[in-house]
Amino acid sequence: MDRLDNTVRPYAWGSTTAIPKLLGVEPTGEPQAEMWMGAHPGAPSRTGRGTLVEVIEAAPERELGAAAVAKFGPHLPFLLKILAAGAPLSLQVHPNLEQAKEGYADEEARGIPVDAGHRNYKDANHKPELICALTEFDGLCGFRDPLRTADLLDGLGVDSLKPYVDLLHAHPEEAALREVLTAILSADPDEMAHTVAEAAAACSRLGGEYAPYADIAHHYPGDPGVIAAMLLNHVRLQPGEALFLGAGIPHAYLDGLGVEIMANSDNVLRCGLTPKHVDVPELLRVVRFEAGDAGVLRPEAAPDGEEVYETPIDEFRLSRYVLPEGTTAHDLTGATPQILLCTAGAVRAGEHELTPGRSVFVPAGEKAEVSGAGTVFRATVVA
């Protein structure tokens, strides 16, 4: 197995302290948002044999296993991250596989450069993802019941929000949510900025369930995404709890440290809370206008102490081992590729000592035993 040397991405929304604290190093004063573990060409992990991209390209079946290559092609189909949000991320959705293929082919045919600011589809893949909290973790996930949202907006006492309140009482539910989101994102920018300012002041004054939206407005004053965010469920994960974000589910991470895993894609359609491009028609094509609760996941016990976060996705499978002092070694040898990540304590993976934030890549079929006292996350595929 290979010890991984991973890149930390300095996005503006990142925490300045969370990742350094996990790694046991001094903060630099700059935001450190995501540490990437995998073979994404944008920031591949490095090994003693070269980058993980180079290692896999040299011998795909040896590294990934014949079954994974047959199912996903000669590349690692997931990207594992440590994510540290110190400010809200953009409100966004991801396309399903068919939408991604169609969108990518269309933008390629129109000759839009892949790095253009107004490009929606960077690749032809979908981007389901799972976030598992390491600390208390705040986020927004999926549409709240429209009638509850109508009460929330009405409680602000902002006259310009009353048309949205009326729309949210309409039926059917899907049409009501679509109309309101369309109206928010299509409103006159100056009028919307005034509405957001009034709503933000009311949220600050009222506190309680309004407090998260006051904080969002503090970071993104005047942004229509502040009002769009109020259509969504606010959820606070406790350590070990997780959220699965499937295609078309609007979401945003607000604050906290977590382990994130996703299909290896960059496809994001934004609804707001960002200075980046917002393509309203394409967004409305992709969003699933379905209300429900956020669907908090808790790990399910599997043999040998493994705790699995069950999802309907084959490109990744995330689980963890919480190893108490004196635990016998666990044999994690499998027929698919793995990344093992320590998030607490000190564990041994093969010949490598892992402390929090350190990880290894285990080729398919390679002997993999873990022991020690700590927490290890295991990322692999279903092939």
Q: Your description of this structure?
A:
The protein has 383 residues and is α+β, with helices and mostly antiparallel strands. Helices cover 28% and strands 28% of the residues. The chain is built from twelve helices and 21 strands. It has helices at 18-23, 52-58, 60-64, 66-72, 97-109, 146-154, 162-168, 173-186, 189-206, 211-219, 225-229, 280-286; strands spanning 2-3, 7-9, 34-38, 46-47, 50-51, 78-85, 91-93, 129-133, 137-143, 232-237, 242-245, 251-263, 269-272, 300-301, 307-309, 317-323, 330-331, 338-349, 352-354, 359-362, 369-380. Strand 4 (46-47) and strand 5 (50-51) form a beta hairpin. Helix 6 (146-154) packs antiparallel against helix 7 (162-168) and helix 9 crosses helix 10. The longest helix is centred in the middle third of the chain and has 18 residues, at 189-206. The protein is globular and about 65 Å long.
Secondary-structure map:
Blueprint: E1 2-3, E2 7-9, H1 18-23, E3 34-38, E4 46-47, E5 50-51, H2 52-58, H3 60-64, H4 66-72, E6 78-85, E7 91-93, H5 97-109, E8 129-133, E9 137-143, H6 146-154, H7 162-168, H8 173-186, H9 189-206, H10 211-219, H11 225-229, E10 232-237, E11 242-245, E12 251-263, E13 269-272, H12 280-286, E14 300-301, E15 307-309, E16 317-323, E17 330-331, E18 338-349, E19 352-354, E20 359-362, E21 369-380
Antiparallel strand pairs: 1-20, 2-3, 3-6, 4-5, 6-12, 7-13, 8-11, 8-12, 9-10, 9-12, 14-15, 15-16, 16-21, 17-21, 18-19, 18-20, 18-21
Helix pairs in contact: 6-7, 9-10
